[in-house]
Amino acid sequence: MTQDAFGIDFGGTGIKGAPVDLASGDFAAERVRITTPQPATPDAVAAVFVELLSQFPDATGAVGVTVPAVVRHGVVSSAANIDPSWIGTDADALLTDATGREVHVVNDADAAGLAEVAYGAARGHQGLVVVTTLGTGIGSALVHDGVLVPNSELGHLEIDGHDAESRAANSARENEALSWEEWAERLTRYYGVVEALLSPDLFVVGGGVSKEADEFLPLLGIQTPIVPATLRNRAGVVGAALHATRAG
After folding, report:
1. CA–CA distance, 22 with 26 (Å, rounded to integer)
2. How many CA atoms lie within 13 A of 51 on its CB side?
3. Where are the beta strands (DSSP E) in the chain?
4. pTM beyond cutoff 0.90
5. Maximum CA pair distance of the chain?
6. pLDDT at 3
7. Which domains does the chain possess?
8. Considering 4, 28, 116, 162, which has the largest number of Cβ atoms within 10 A of its Cβ?
9. Which of 70, 19, 13, 20 is nearest to 45 (CA)?
């Protein structure tokens, strides 16, 4: 297990990590979860990462970390659900210094996209794959022939005068008590716009609601094949570990 890469999924409420077997795309040991410190400042989170890594002394490979933020060359430039002090932080450098390990951060939706293309629903697909996560908002990842195009932020497209995720995210379905059919109309509009802009070869739909994909995906009136994600809550950790090995 010594050369397994390590993945950490850093979220607003929990920080989850595990060594990852990159041959299979699965955890190489049971995942550990630690509650996200409040406030979740860079130094406080780094201390949690040190504690987390100490529980896996045999996993000595590169460390990948998801963050719910835009990341450019290891520098965090937004702060959705994390402390604003992250903005402008060179997270790669800070976390590498704090842990004594080679650390690379990646947007959380981008990590999920990498995992789904390498091991999940989009495995073996060439061309442009658009992975979306439908949750509180809409996360997105663009992967072309296995190569990530980072920070796409397609949930923030303006469609019909609205920020797309304010109308089409799963939170909108829940908050407005939309039927599957009503939500599917909004999703058709959303995916139709993305389809017209990018002409992708495949859409993959993640997020917790993907477990109920049979209720809404068949209702979508788009041309591009669209399938549910398969890695679900493993995608962040697995994708982060994969990113770390590619970024090193």
Report:
1. 7
2. 14
3. 5-10, 14-21, 26-27, 32-35, 63-67, 71-72, 75-76, 103-107, 128-134, 138-144, 147-149, 158-159, 162-163, 202-206, 226-228
4. yes
5. 52
6. 56
7. 5-108+234-247 (3.30.420.40), 121-230 (3.30.420.40)
8. 116
9. 13
